[in-house]
Amino acid sequence: MGLSLERSDPATPAAGVRIRGVAAADAARLILGLTLVMGLTLRLAPILITDFPLRDGGLFVTMARDLQANGFVPPLFSSFNAGDVPFAYPPLGILALAAVPGDPIETARWLPLAWSMAAVVAAWLLARELTDELTGAVAGFLFAVMPVTWAIEGGGVARAPGLALLLLALWRVAILLRHQSFYNAALAGLPAGLALLSHPQVGPTGLASALVLLAFRPSWRGAWWLVVGGAVALLAAGPWLVSVVYHYGWQPLLTATGAHDTAPALARLLLFGPTWLGAFDFVVPFAVLGTALALHRRVWLVPAWLVVLLIVPGGEGRYAAVAWAMLAAIGLIPVFEAIRAAGAQRVAIGLGLAFVFAVALVAGYRRFGALPVATRQAIVAAGQQSPPGTRFAVISADPSDSQPLLDWFPTLSGRISVGTYQGLEFTTPERWQGAVDADSAIEDGRIPSDADVVFTEP
């Protein structure tokens, strides 16, 4: 069975796969249930062992507090760090964070989890639409256990809804290209617009992905309805875009587009795979096999889509994960068939699930740690012991991963970190690069002259 935009008959077993007499459709439902249980367990584990949001999120917590203090009317600038970060960040995730009663810090622990589980369902829907029911279920499972897709950190307040809504939009785009109508165009455009309101990277990734889907089902009518869907997306995101341009001009949007250098991430991906597991990455071998099978069957969609995502700025990360998972599913199913033919399917399933769970859990703990209690206490104390406006040079205990400390220092201390660059991607290229350079200098022991105090992480 090949990969195309023609939806497979759900009642037709994928490649004749059966699990101890269970038809593909029933096996797919079993796998989906297992996916939701394992996906939730893996995501809950790192959250439950800490009382603080995982990794970053300080900028979004401050912006949520700004919204609450201003009666949910966005101020022109956030109070974060020096107080001159434009309130130009896509607002959906921040609005959701602010709308939940209570302290946004506590909400930022749990809210990304809900969005991340929604992304699992969206990935399953998209993979099923582009392949068949069983392959889609296996791809959804692999997507769910790849830590790169979890987005449960505090910064997942914005990243996780962007991922979930983008995948939902692409699922509806694939349906739109099969059944063109205004109804389907609206159902594709609305989540696309909401995705734009969640995270800045979904724009180029979503557009490139939609064009790939159109290229594999080309028609003028399909292109027309895709334009209609795009118009719906712009209507949904339009008020925010107009507000940003009106208050700040085009500069914040242009700067945010080019602020993040994807070259190191792409090099890491090509060298170590998409799940931060290095040589133990369990997705890559099956994805390589799946790519070979897809190309042998002359089915080009998913391999072509993955190549495009590796090229589009920002697409090589969590947005490409569903393509990796789909290719790995294509490679894994024939392997399972061979194991079943040898009569070892029970042992293989048991060992395989245990291995995947253990490796994904280890990778999750490596990836999703929270700022230590001692560090948080020291940051709060530094703020209490210094006058307002004090400028700190913040030195991380782990220079290779200083982002969480830089992000949380201004929020927890109420003071200024001269090397914190979060939020400055919506100012000017000079300010963004200046903060990045200042952080590099500080980590090298070269303290900027405008820093009043040095803070060293315990």
Spatial sequence of strands, sheet with the most strands: 4-3-5
Any idea what the radius of gyration is?
A: 23 Å
* Helix share bin: 55-70%
Which regions are unreliable across 5 or more consecutive residues at pLDDT < 50?
Answer: 1-21
Structural class, from secondary structure content? mainly alpha
Tell me, what's the shape?
A: globular
Assembly form of the protein: single chain
Write the layout of secondary structure elements.
Elements: H1 24-48, H2 58-69, E1 77-78, E2 85-86, H3 92-99, H4 104-130, H5 133-145, H6 156-178, H7 182-196, H8 202-215, H9 220-248, H10 251-258, H11 263-272, H12 284-296, H13 301-311, H14 321-341, H15 345-367, H16 373-384, E3 391-395, H17 403-413, E4 416-417, H18 429-443, E5 453-456
Parallel strand pairs: 3-4, 3-5
Antiparallel strand pairs: 1-2
Helix pairs in contact: 1-4, 1-5, 1-15, 2-3, 2-17, 3-6, 4-5, 4-6, 5-14, 6-7, 6-8, 6-9, 7-9, 8-13, 12-14, 13-14, 16-17
